[in-house]
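User: I'm writing a tutorial on reading structure tokens. Could you give me a worked example: one chain, its sequence, then its tokens, then a sentence or two explaining what the tokens reveal?
Assistant: Sure. Here is the example chain.
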Amino acid sequence: MESTHGSFPIPLGDDGVTAVRGVNGAALTSFTSVRRPTRIGAPAIPLRTVTRVGADGAPVIEVHGELDIVTAGPLREVIESVAETRCAIITVDLAGVPFCDLVGLEELVKAADGLAARCGRLTLANPPSSLRRLLQVTGLSRRFHRIIDAGTD
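And here are its predicted structure tokens:
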């Protein structure tokens, strides 16, 4: 299978993960796609992640698609993979996530807790309003380093 990232085709392995390596071997950008079974009556929105280096030099994982019982575990694996190469603040940008269920929330909290145990912190950027509300109501927002919206620090 082949996917396009920018104008360069990137072959995807059976696991759906491809990384572009820098001079020192560190992953500069990666692309992950999780195939999901089709739901009856609704089109499947596959989860896709793109990992890049943010303006401050910290990793940013952009998430696109639904974050639910099928796709949440693979997202946590992506976060853990990035954390293995760099123990710092990792930002998960959820601007491309139209829906997140409780399993998705649980996996984000597990990833934040795991990162905190290894000296890192997880920031959520641009969470959907429904997820932001869940974080406030449950008190789980304090488990994350920060929760930010576009246009804010």
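What the tokens reveal: The domain at 28-33+45-148 is CATH 3.30.750.24 (Transcription Regulator spoIIAA). The longest strand covers residues 27-34.
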